[in-house]
Request: fold
Amino acid sequence: MIDENNVWFSLFKGNVPSPVKVFERCNWVLESGVALTACIIGKSHRICFTSGSDCLTEFIAYSMDSFSVEPLDQRSLKLGDSLDREFIHRSLYYKVKVEVIGQVYLSFDEFLKTIPDIESYETMFREFKNPLSNSDSQPFTGIVIASNRNQIFTVHTYPEVNYSIISVVEINVLEPEFAS
Reply:
């Protein structure tokens, strides 16, 4: 059984539906031709990356025990953790870096200023009610799509435990001779 109070990184082969309510949903196509559907699900996210019939689904979310599919990778995320991984699934090359930092971004704009050399991007954002009534900081989830760079940046803030989870994904389509 997975501890529901932990936040998890999970990556699955295929299009894995969200097990919880979707608050926001957007579709984009990156310069590489990869189509993505990004969803904010609570203080979490689900992003589905698709090229033809090849598909990967990424979650950074609370409890991950309601899935009937085995993940390619699944890790509990705690303060100080850093994850730097690469995966190839058929024609998709997926590289992710996730960090759990002891900083709570006070706004989505503050997070945007930390992304180096980003000129053209689109975003989705959702703020949530803080479970701590004595805090001015509202938890939020933000997703930044830099289509021309084939990159996706995410931020999840958790002021109730004084940390943020940030990630960057690079996703590309491999040439046929390199696809697995």
